[in-house]
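chain below, 153 aa
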Amino acid sequence: MSETFRGGGVAVTGLTAGETTLTITAGSQSVNIPVHVWANLWKLPDDLPKTVNGITFTRNGETVHASGTSTSWAVVSSTISLESGTYTLEHMTSTGIVFAELKSTSSNVDLFSANVSLSKGECPAADDYQCIVSVKPNTTVDADITPVLRKLS
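prediction:
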């Protein structure tokens, strides 16, 4: 299955957040590139597997698999406490049918992984936020999504 990273760049998993280097070798030439590894702050629901409105959501590590045909909005969510700051929400998926959203429980913060203009924003105050994975109504799906939430500042 082909994976795409909405937002561009390279995705590396399994590294601890912080500073490291990647070594790239082509033939006899090698170069070390310093990189910053961002922590993925996204919190997946603890109650998976779960079927909602015809869609079964299962968990595999940091990935959610959605399968079935939705009869209405099919949504699973969890709550996370975040500090104030600038955040980005992106996702790796094989399709655009499943998407992720970060929504404030008490203010007007709403980040969408499927919309470039809404994938970066400010969380103005420390607060609780909903980490939501959704499939829209009347949609047949058999796909994975790996939401990636990062604090930039």
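Residues 50-151 form a domain with the Jelly Rolls fold (CATH 2.60.120.380). The CA atoms of residues 104 and 129 lie 4 Å apart.
thats it, cya
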